[in-house]
């Protein structure tokens, strides 16, 4: 057992990629003992936990790819974590890999990096909106095969100007996207769990879920994945949408039913879509891969030097404040009132 005077331990799950962030991580050694896992899968990680290797760990920094080592942080995993662990600092805005309810029941506080990703993700969303509207993907594929625009040529695309963009989930990314879309002349409306103030929404029109589905020319999914939002877009929702609607998803793959999406694309009720996220990443539905009217990105919404470095530094700050003050810099909303 560690002595009362021993430094608290800090566990790294995954890797910190950027040099400046790695250097900042090392500065945490002044307030805690830095540890890393040697496990390569969930079973090995659980064995490490049970061995006592992580006894005294107070805070853990986890990356999105570390799910390949630990699996989802759920009740089954949490019960194996050291009893000393009080903070899990997740390097991402979305945190569906972490069962917050299970963590709460074990007295573990969870943080994320809620605004560091806003610009980069909104930029990616706008790229997909423009590409899907203009039917760029079909001809980009044809061009690489020596067929110029394609044979036959793709149907003419559409300009963003004057089109109604429906944003489902008006958080930081949604609000950032609104500004970018308006610069392209789009009219923005949104649906959220609750209506935002005029100032926070930037005077965007608030509408019901059904109205957003039925009146939007383009629908952007920007909501978190949880038990209430899984497959929030499926066959009944597709049937309520305007014919020829464009759909873009940079949130989480499972907020949309991919089987239903493929069916709607094949029917022609959805003209095109742009996807950066998928239900079973890195596996992609073959019906999406086969359809040239679908723009696909391999989860690159935050794939920039600047944003990744910003996220890593933000998450390190969460670890630092947790160890030094016993509180997180940016706790997840579900735990805002957790003592």
Number of strands: 12
Strand order across the largest sheet: 8-7-6-9-10-11-12
Number of distinct helices: 14
> What's the mean pLDDT score?
96
As a percent range, the share of helical residues equals 25-40%
Shape: elongated
Largest sheet, strands/sense/barrel:
7 strands, parallel
Unreliable spans are none
Distance between the termini: 26 Å
* Percent strand: 15-25%
Which H/E pattern describes the elements? EHEHEHHEHEHHEHEHEHEHEHEHEH
List the helices and strands and how they pair.
Elements: E1 9-13, H1 19-27, E2 33-36, H2 42-51, E3 57-63, H3 67-70, H4 75-78, E4 87-91, H5 100-105, E5 109-111, H6 118-133, H7 136-144, E6 164-168, H8 172-183, E7 187-191, H9 198-201, E8 205-206, H10 209-215, E9 218-221, H11 235-240, E10 245-249, H12 258-267, E11 270-275, H13 286-289, E12 294-296, H14 305-325
Parallel strand pairs: 1-2, 1-3, 3-4, 4-5, 6-7, 6-9, 7-8, 9-10, 10-11, 11-12
Helix pairs in contact: 1-14, 6-8
Please give a structural write-up:
The protein has 339 residues and is an alpha/beta fold. It has helices at residues 19-27, 42-51, 67-70, 75-78, 100-105, 118-133, 136-144, 172-183, 198-201, 209-215, 235-240, 258-267, 286-289, 305-325, and strands at residues 9-13, 33-36, 57-63, 87-91, 109-111, 164-168, 187-191, 205-206, 218-221, 245-249, 270-275, 294-296. Helix 1 links the parallel strand 1 and strand 2 (33-36). The two termini are 26 Å apart. Strands 8-7-6-9-10-11-12 form a seven-stranded parallel sheet, sandwiched between helices. The chain has a five-stranded parallel sheet with strand order 2-1-3-4-5. Helix 1 runs parallel beside helix 14 and helix 6 packs across helix 8 (172-183).
